[in-house]
Amino acid sequence: MASASIQKMAMNPDLAKERRNASFHVENLTNYIYHGTERVKRKRYIQNIAQQEDCIKNSKPWAFRTRQEEYELSLNKANHILKRQKELSMTDEVDKFYFNEAMLPNENNPMGLHFGMVIPTIEKHGTPEQKEKFLPLAKGMKIIGTYVQTELGHGTFIRGLETTATFDQKTQEFVMNSPTLSSTKYWPGNLGKTVNYCVLMAQLYTQGKCHGPHMFLCPLRDLVTHQSLPGVELGDIGPKFGYRGNDNGFLRLNNFRIPHDHMLMRYSKVLKDGTYIKPENTKLSYGSMVMIRASIVGMTARALSQACVIAIRYSAVRRQTEVSPGGPEAQILDYQTQQYKLFPLLASAYAFTFAGQAVQASFLQISKEIEAGNLQQMPVLHALAAGLKAFSSWTCSAGVEVCRMSCGGHGYSLASGLPKIYTNITPSCTYEGENTVMMLQTARFLSKCAMKVQKGEKLPGLVSYLSTDLTKKSCMTADVTFDCLVKAYQHRAARLTKAAAAAIQRYMNDGQSPAEAFNMASTQLIWAAKAHCHQYVVNVFVNTVTKAKVDKNTGAVLTTLCKLYAVNGILENLGEFLQDQFFSCDQVDILTRKLMTLLAEVRPDAVALVDAFDFPDSVLESCLGRYDGNVYYALYQYAKSSPLNEQDVLDSFHKYIQPMREGQASSPAQARL
Amino acid sequence: MASASIQKMAMNPDLAKERRNASFHVENLTNYIYHGTERVKRKRYIQNIAQQEDCIKNSKPWAFRTRQEEYELSLNKANHILKRQKELSMTDEVDKFYFNEAMLPNENNPMGLHFGMVIPTIEKHGTPEQKEKFLPLAKGMKIIGTYVQTELGHGTFIRGLETTATFDQKTQEFVMNSPTLSSTKYWPGNLGKTVNYCVLMAQLYTQGKCHGPHMFLCPLRDLVTHQSLPGVELGDIGPKFGYRGNDNGFLRLNNFRIPHDHMLMRYSKVLKDGTYIKPENTKLSYGSMVMIRASIVGMTARALSQACVIAIRYSAVRRQTEVSPGGPEAQILDYQTQQYKLFPLLASAYAFTFAGQAVQASFLQISKEIEAGNLQQMPVLHALAAGLKAFSSWTCSAGVEVCRMSCGGHGYSLASGLPKIYTNITPSCTYEGENTVMMLQTARFLSKCAMKVQKGEKLPGLVSYLSTDLTKKSCMTADVTFDCLVKAYQHRAARLTKAAAAAIQRYMNDGQSPAEAFNMASTQLIWAAKAHCHQYVVNVFVNTVTKAKVDKNTGAVLTTLCKLYAVNGILENLGEFLQDQFFSCDQVDILTRKLMTLLAEVRPDAVALVDAFDFPDSVLESCLGRYDGNVYYALYQYAKSSPLNEQDVLDSFHKYIQPMREGQASSPAQARL
Predict the structure, then answer these.
(1) Residue B277's beta-bridge partner residues?
(2) Would an 8 Å CB–CB cutoff place B4 in contact with chain A?
(3) B665 falls in which pLDDT band (50, 70, 90)?
């Protein structure tokens, strides 16, 4: 079967050419992204180990696994990860991250919440006695837990939770109940089948009074047989858009009793006689929430980076439509429309990578201040992490879909790897705080800042730009300097913040309650919050590029990317920059032409810029994004291995197709016409 | 288990209240959308029949089916559809459409391409002899076919196809070959396992010359045994993002011979001696392409409508966050941010519904002219259908995802029904002409129009607005009249078209070739093409609303929706309206306030406006979008029926979880702590 024509090349010649012609050394940029040659070496070593694991090498491709197989495999992999980490004494969190990513690319580790949330929660919220009792059990995995908060009817608004924990003084137990249908716990990861314990959020009742949501350690399954305990009804919640390997679960509790020492009591306490003792400081628990949101920024950047690798490599390989009649078909990467789709996203992937690193660094620094008792910076960071989590997850999630569609029809096949990336990252728009609610938290903080500006008060560093003089017009010239770009973003955010705060004030002057006025201004508040996050990301990108210790060529390409990110962001949101005529018509023309120039400048380096992310093929799992560019060969192999092809003629032919034809007298009973 | 608390209500009280308080009669709007009470009655009758079919009532829910089950079920349903259509003498295309939609909601009919494309192609492109021979076989389903065009390396650019059909004069046969890997046919629906024939696009070679792509009837499988024929290698291409029930296929041909009469020869001919005869008119074949693209507009509107039904009903049922401290939680539909997400999409769903009807009507009218030999209007319609297909599929596809995310976490469950709608509609962005290529076709036409404007030539109806005086500023006042809205969209599209055409000219003056100049201006050309389509949709919406024969209240709510669509579209693309200061700052303020007012005006009618689409629950297949609002009840039932819950303790516990714990000396061997 014309088999000579179906073969793998060592390297697609177009990709080889792209790599030869790049203006900078890929390795230099990779080293910069990952903080040095040593770390890059280590990352590759770790990724390489993962690729050698049996459960990776010998498993069915992701696209062909059933949900059950995917669930089993994720447990199998979790098992291997723990074993190998121990064998290799892998204790560094960065090492663990890359090992986990390589073992479970765009998949969930079923032990992730146990080690990442449950154990830290016991460490943070347990008394010394509780830690001594539960931590060894949890670390030894006698107890395997998850974090159980959301209910069928209650998500981001925690005070609305309905699950109850009522202290029974006689037996020194808490009686746990799911009093309504909407109080059914729903969504917690790994709850359905995997865990035997959980950290449970429930309304605490003692001495007849409700004291709001508190954390309990709640057994769910027999520690030996794994059977669900009497009074506990739980299970998997069924298939989702993605997260196929995750047994996100539901849970109902019916007069289920847990011992007194199962309420986490480092801060709040219930004494033996039922007396409730309030925590001294309620803000302390925000820390881990902020950290998780900050880490999501980096995660979303990583997803978008992967999608860009796939789409840009494919666009260099794919040829379509002759440029001059009868001539060869062009690489689709040469079409400006394709560049306009992909290069701003490539720039965004870099922007969010750096923003993720910056916000984590801020978190670590401010955490130290907090540990030292200084809580001043907490609101700034809290507002930034909330907004940035929303801004990055929205942008990156939508960006992955643009990458997918930029691959034409082939993007729609699971073989492209893109649907897996998308369905795995899009939940970040709703988990850990629904994005709109997050943005409104940022906006609430900003509107308070705006009032301080009005009063002439000084604002802390990250929001000090809000007191910008709004009457000043843009300094933009044909040079398109970083300074004028940053000022433009600051102007926009400051103006929108002022306008939103003014709207609240106006509605209140009209007699609305503060809550109602806030709601009536909330669309404008979200515009302001997005603009604030956008200026932060631009600012970080500019600072990063300006200060980066890299060779000249690498610096130049980063500068181009950074300008592309900033210029494109202005043009995409042009109305917000033009409403007060901050830019003149001529300045807009300058920016529009600059955009086209920047696209052309990125073009020769596009493949090298995605190579620099240094994802192994095994993490991308994409026929389109392979390093060697054997796209069509891979798609053909993918098709041939489809499970539907195990038989040439399926039983369904006899069962359903034949009967449709019966009674058709016109049919000759012959094999061919 | 607290079972009293888990029950189904007759009707969720919030939804009941919404329906009581609507300002108009839902039934009146439904009748308007579907062209009269009789048609609505008929539609419901048809949908009701579908709901009674065994293969609908007794089948596993979509979310729980494996790919194999989904494929089999789609064949089973296709079987039932044919049978029932015959029994009920269902011949009207509208009836068939609703029956098909109800039987295969957001799924593919495996006989759809056979009846919808293959038979019409034989009818249109076959000679009288070919029609006589093949049509009875196709109608009797002895031959079941599909349309095979795209190849691994070739999609929208048909001239690039590589599959060859070489006429062998000696045997009077065509020899079919897939000469390269990239020539492998890839993607055709139902090709993998279902069909035994196809209409194949291949490069025709005769007398040593290539005559470009032509259509062949190509046998693939034995008509009796269904086994693939020697020389034919074909199969399923593996799982995709959606289209689970579709065996999209691949095909390679190796010196596969088909008889002379298997080339469709109504227009082009190959004589027995190998002489090639050209068709008289090459434009004739565009008709069906235009029709299919026009019909996609309506399809995408229907998908967005369904998503809006689900998201808006759920937003009326869902409550979150107390408005005043200690008060009840609000319906999330009362939050302006939620209204801002959903109501413009609701307005878009109506806009594209009407645009779809309008473009189909234009098609039918212009088709008549074409049949009468008048081809003048063809380019206008061709450009409109291409652009509108892209504009509507992009907007509606992205809109479905916004609806999904507006449902918070629950939108991510397949129980929401939204992932099914999304994955079924998003391919419309790439099939039947990749969207960017489509937009560029529209843009190319527009840039020609712009040149005519420059020369002072008069343009036909749909593009006559391009000669608008661009120096005029907007007439917008606080009334926000339809006239000023339409003029704004015309101004924007005319300005962008002029700018894009000028850019091409500028690049050519700089010495670029026409092709290169077009490429360098292509981003701007796409902006222009989108603006053109947008003004068409606004125009149709305004005309529809203005002329609609409906009662006053229905007219009022349609007017509000139409204004919302137009005002929101301006604010979303504000930069394009502001770049030449067409609007003043005050006018933008007017529009911003108007937007907020319109959201508040739609609010009390939102549920009634989605009810008016009249989708039965069985078509929505959504726990969140149920007519009765029993959202949490349905989600709980969905979870309980998840296949992973068939056993309490899965085998994987013993296989993978237990071993992780082994060797942990700290674990007591007890069931509970």
Answers:
(1) B269
(2) no
(3) very low
Residues B130 and B273 in one domain: yes
Task: Tell me whether B369 touches chain A (CB under 8 Å).
Answer: no
Most B CBs within 10 A among A216, A321, A492, hence the mutation to make, goes to A321
Residue B187 falls inside a structural domain = yes
Helix, strand, coil shares of chain A, percent, nearest 5, are: 60, 10, 30
Known active-site residue B432 = yes
B274 and B144 assigned to the same domain: yes
CA of B137, closest CA in chain A: separation in Å?
6
Contact of B233 with chain A, judged by CB distance below 8 Å, is answered with yes
Question: Do B208 and B230 fall within a single domain?
Answer: yes
Chain A positions touching B63 (Cβ under 8 A) are: 238-239
Of the three residues B249, B279, B309, the one that is the final residue of a domain is B279
Answer yes or no: is the ipTM higher than 0.95: yes
Say if residue A2's pLDDT is above 60: no
Confidence of residue A1 (pLDDT cuts 50, 70, 90): very low
**In-domain check, residue A19:** no
Residue found by looking up tokens 């992009």 in the block:
B394
Radius of gyration for chain B, computed over Cα atoms and rounded to the nearest angstrom: 28
Chain A hits for B6, Cβ within 8 Å = 181
Q: In chain A, which residues have their Cβ closer than 8 Å to the Cβ of B413? A: 237-241
Indicate whether B2 pLDDT > 80.
no
User: Same domain for A103 and A119?
Assistant: no
- Residue B26, domain member (yes or no): no
Whether residue A137 is contained in a domain is answered as yes
Number of domains present in the structure of chain A: 2
Residues of B within 8 A of A178 (CB-CB) are 2, 5
Widest Cα–Cα separation across chain B:
92
Token pair, residue A495, equals 């103006």
CA distance A561 to chain B (A): 18
**Statement: residue A491 has pLDDT above 80:** yes
**Exposure on the CB side of residue B16, measured as CA atoms within 13 A:** 6
Does the pTM surpass 0.80? The reply is yes
The pLDDT tens digits for B60-116 are 999 999 999 999 999 999 999 999 999 999 999 999 999 999 999 999 999 999 999
- Inter-chain CB proximity B137 and A645 less than 8 Å: no
Q: Is B339 within 8 Å of B333 (Cβ atoms)?
A: yes
Q: Residues A300, A303, A309, A315: is their CA dihedral positive or negative?
A: negative
Query: What Cα–Cα distance (Å) separates residue A576 from each residue in A492, A496, B202, B574?
Result: 7, 8, 51, 8
Which position among A18, A432, A601, A621 bears the catalytic label?
A: A432
CB contact under 8 A, B72 and A652: yes
List all residues of chain A from 523 to 552 with a beta carbon under 8 Å from chain B. 523-524, 526
Same domain, A74 and A51: yes
Q: Least CA distance to A648: which residue of chain B?
A: B227
- Indicate the residue of B2, B334, B636 with minimum beta-carbon distance to A152: B636
Predicted pLDDT at B666:
46
Measured distance CA(B575)–CA(A588) in Å, rounded: 10
Alpha-carbon gap, residue B50 to B43, rounded angstroms: 11
CATH number of the domain that B177 lies in?
2.40.110.10
Residues B103 and B127 occupy one common structural domain: no
CB contact under 8 A, A182 and B632: yes
Amino acid in position B500: A
Chain B's closest residue to A393, CA to CA, is B405
User: Are the CB atoms for A171 and B340 separated by under 8 Å?
Assistant: no
Can you give the CATH number for the domain in which B51 is found?
A: 1.10.540.10
Predicted local confidence at residue A283, as pLDDT: 59
User: Looking at residues A357-364, what average pLDDT do you find?
Assistant: 92
Residues A368-384 have pLDDT tens digits of: 887 787 777 888 889 99
Lowest pLDDT segment from A433-442, B273-282, B395-404, B477-486? B273-282
Rg over CA atoms, chain A? 28
Strand ranges inside A359-460, DSSP E? none
